[in-house]
Amino acid sequence: MKKCCLLLLLISSVLCAQNNSIETTIKALQQDQLLFEKVFVHTNKTKYAIDDVIWFKAYVVTNENKPSLKTTLLYVNLFSEDGELIHSKNVLIQNGVGNGQFELFGDLKGGDYYIQANTNYMKNFGEENKYLQKIEIKGDVNEIEESKANYDIQVFPEGGCLLEGVENTIGIKALINGKSIDYTGEILDSKNKEVARFKSKHLGMTKTKLYYKPSEKYRAVFTVKDSVISVNLPMAKSMGVSINTTNSTDAVLNLELKTNLKSINESKTSYTLLFHQNNKLIDYMDVNMVDTSKVKLEINKEGFFNGVNTVTMFKGNKPIVERKFFVYKKDVKQEVQVSALIAEKDSTTYKLKLSKAKTISNISLSVLSVNTNYEQTATIESAFLLTAYVKGYVEYPAYYFNIQNENRLQYIDLLLLTQGWTEYSTDEYINRLNPKYKYDFEQGFSLSGKVEVLKSNNLGILARNNQVVAQTFLNNKPEFKFKNLLVYKGDSIKVSFLKGVDKNIAEKPNGISFSFLKPKPLTLSYSFSSKYFKKGKESQKDGIIETSAKKINLGDVNELDEIEVVGKSENKSYLRDKKFNSKYRKQIFDLGLYNKLDIPKHYKEKNLSLGDYLLKDRGYRRYTFPSYPVEFLIKGINRRGLPIFVGLSLDGYKVVPKSDNKISLAEVFLIKMEDIERILFNPGKNPRSLSKIAIFTTDNYKEGIKELFKHYVFNDGYDKSKKYYSPLYNYAMGTENQEIDWKPNLVTNGLGETVFRIKNNEANNRKVFVIQGHTEHGKLISSTVFLD
Q1: Which positions ≥6 away from 635 have C-beta within 8 Å?
Q2: Edge-to-edge, what's the strand order for the sheet holding 767-775?
Q3: Which positions ≥6 away from 343 have C-beta within 8 Å?
Q4: Is CB count within 10 Å lower at the N or C end of the chain?
Q5: Could you give the count of Cα atoms lying within 13 Å of 573 in the half-sphere of its Cβ?
Q6: Please, which residues have CB within 8 angstroms of residue 222's CB and are 6 or more apart in sequence?
Q7: Distance between CA 515 and CA 704 in Å, rounded?
Q8: Would you state the pLDDT for residue 438?
Q9: Would you state the pLDDT for residue 630?
């Protein structure tokens, strides 16, 4: 890296001196750099009815905004404002994108809700790296109990600290119950003399200037509605340097470095400015302030990254102040044109074209009526250029990327000023920018377990069509693990030993068991309502919704015939019982009097026999009269020493204790439990009645087919994304809360073009197309197009 090679348009009293102390820090930042992942979730709307469906498209990219090919699992969660987890989805990410939906069933109260998304790997960079977006659900509003207003007022010295003897810039942010407020205020010295005034400018943020006199103390007094709140300013340092961005433009970063006479006379130290974006280093330069108290730099922004950049000042190799600044490169954004091609009676075909790039792009498109109550709170630009690089929840980030907001660049710099900075040791600073690798990329799910009997060293997972989808070599060990499985919730698989020269002979494993890590419960550590708002230092910590990571080896793996999936009206277990009853009612007329017996899982896993179950679990046994050598099934012996007989049937036919019976009781006892479909019990009408056991075998057993696999179903895995169908227009609802269409998977051709069709109705003559996406080269697409 060349020193002092930034394009300096104007330098006053700056000396690029030799300073090797920073080299060790730079070398440490460049070693073992971790990939930086970012997430954006595009929802089809921002305001929903309580019985609506939240459709979304997820984008996962690297720091260059190119699709991340490392991760295939994204966790997307829906939280209420007070921290309740409503839904959680495991979204399959392929080539950096994935789809999903949250179905709302009308049981939610109206109010603000938050979509949170992150990959497991993103946790390497801290909880604040998670994506967060607010949506609104229309309905009856929760009755919020009266509670005291909790004020969270923070002051942020520019660069991270105040310095005596110079004019300091101070960022100010005020929240009430977690939401921005308007206010006015003044800064008073120890004699209650006003030295500065301020008032809120944008979303509870503002800034002011203060000349900090040596050994003085100051406090900020806020007037919020009818309340007056006083906050002490942090004490200033007697020696050091301050950093200030002043009057920066789209093209130029203006930096002003200031120090005091005490620092000049006693320190006589040069400083180093390091420019970077997280762990991606841009350049650095040395600045000598031995003979001057002020240095002004004008730096061309062309050499910086698009989005949030950072300048950190070092004294030796220790970081002392830091400031974030924003760079917006207009030429990187792709402009979008939408035009109607073919108008038919029931639909219209449109053409979407990127005006600048002839390249393949991945795009999601929401089609709404111009009358729709739509407020775009986040965009792919705000997610990838801004919120991924700042701490805390950013209120309405899309504002800073709407060209109609004239003050957006001024306010985005104000937002970055209120980020704050804490003085770090060199090691802490390096670990913050370039953390150690702790959390893996997740590429599917892993399944681990153990087999009791090793019939082969090759264990395989087979799909329903008996195709081998994964296999592992056991190396004469009973433990196994399958990695990177693409499985959906409810998927069924077959597990089998693979034998033969070509591994084309299957043999059923006995005594197989699975082990997995239970997911940690998702929690909300930061809230936006007064009832749950955290006071004190905790409220100033990160200011973002956080959840424990859902680390899963593989969630609940159950045997296929034990799964019961409950639906809205009838569950599968009920439907299966209905079919079962109709099948056997002719053989057993009083089938309705029988109860289903639970079969402990280990009887099937260990391939135990029916006799083991009846003897060990139910207490039945075989009994033979000395003078009548035919076996009976009995429950025990009564007080008179006589056996208590139990009626037994197999597949609807009685197992009669006669010598000419088709199957003997001894043979029934030898049937393997894996061949048993169900066991029913009838206790009898009264204590003197004969109790009955009804055994039902599987269809494979009846037909003499030997099952070569173990069937299992996954209760965890990826959530399947449903197909979107354009809704029928509801004239009673009006256009305010209805979407016209949702196109999550548009892909342009090599010319940057694609076509799509939209159904027509009387209410959607005027449409708004909300378009988000990116090109294969990492250029962002964010546009809103209005068409008649």
Answers
A1: 619, 620, 644, 645, 646, 691
A2: 739-747, 361-369, 767-775, 780-787
A3: 349
A4: C
A5: 7
A6: 153, 174, 183, 184, 185, 228, 229, 230, 231
A7: 33
A8: 92
A9: 78
Q: What is the pTM of this model?
A: 0.79
Measure the CA–CA gap between 553 and 446, rounded to whole angstroms.
5
433: which 2 tokens? Answer: 């920018």
Average pLDDT, 10 consecutive residues per value, the chain (788 residues):
42 42 85 91 93 95 93 94 90 95 88 94 88 89 63 92 95 89 95 96 95 95 90 93 86 92 81 92 88 89 93 91 92 87 89 86 92 85 94 91 91 92 86 90 87 89 80 92 86 84 80 64 43 30 27 37 31 56 73 82 79 88 79 84 87 74 82 87 77 87 74 82 80 65 94 91 76 93 89
pLDDT at 527: 37
Distance from C-alpha of 328 to C-alpha of 520, rounded to nearest angstrom: 39
Q: Give which of 318, 256, 322, 311 is closest to 289, Cα–Cα.
A: 256
Tokens representing 357 are 């790039």
DSSP for 276-344 reads EETTEEEEEEEEE-SS-SEEEEEEEGGGSPSEEEEEEEEETTEEEEEEEEEE--GGGSBPEEEEEEEE-
Looking at residue 289, its pLDDT comes to: 84
Quote the pLDDT of residue 499: 87
Residue showing tokens 């043999």: 507
Radius of gyration of the chain from Cα atoms? Answer: 35
Q: Which CA distances in Å does 665 have to 45, 647, 662?
A: 66, 11, 10
Distance CA 714, CA 557 (A): 5
* Token reading at 362: 């991945």
Q: Taking a C-beta distance cutoff of 8 angstroms, is the pair 527, 393 a contact? A: no
Residue 535 zone, left/alpha/beta (φ > 0; ψ -120 to 50; rest): beta
* Separation CA 251–CA 421 (nearest Å): 25
What is the distance between the alpha carbons of residues 236 and 123, in angstroms, rounded to a whole number?
A: 34
Distance, CA of 381 to CA of 273 (rounded, Å): 28
Q: Which amino acid is at 242?
A: S
Residue 341 buriedness (CB in 10 A; 0-12 / 13-18 / 19+)? exposed
User: How far is Cα 281 from Cα 777, in angstroms, rounded to an integer?
Assistant: 21
Q: Residue 409 has which token pair?
A: 């660049």
> What pLDDT, on a 0 to 100 scale, did the predictor assign at position 526?
42
Q: What does the pLDDT read at residue 737?
A: 64
Residue 87 CB-half CA count within 13 A = 19
State how far the alpha carbon of 85 is from the alpha carbons of 400, 418, 524, in Å.
29, 29, 8
Q: Phi, psi at residue 628, to the nearest 5°?
A: -140, 85
Measured on CA atoms in the order 412, 413, 416, 417, is the torsion positive or negative? negative
CA-to-CA distance for 401 and 403, rounded, in angstroms? 6
Encoding tokens for residue 730? Answer: 């509801």
Q: Give, in order, the Cα–Cα distances in Å from 73 to each of 91, 438, 568.
A: 6, 17, 28
Q: Which two tokens stand for residue 55?
A: 């459709």
* Helices 426-433, 23-30: crossing angle, 10 deg rounding: 30
Q: Which residues of 558-597 are buried (b: 16+ CB within 10 A; e: fewer)?
A: bbeeebeeeeeeeeeeeeeeeebeeebeeebeebeebeee
Let me know: does 25 contact 284? Beta carbons within 8 Å: no
| Separation in Å, CA 429 to CA 278, 279, 402 | 11, 11, 34
Q: What does residue 131 show for φ and ψ, rounded to 5 degrees?
A: -80, 145
- Which residues are within 8 A (CB) of 536 and not within 5 positions of it... i.e. 6 or more apart? none
From the CB of residue 375, how many other CB atoms can be counted at a distance below 10 Å? 13
- Given the DSSP bridges, would you call strands 336-343 and 479-485 parallel, antiparallel or unpaired? unpaired
Of residues 88, 84, 59, 58, the one with CA closest to residue 76: 88
Backbone angles phi, psi at 624, to 5 degrees: -130, 130
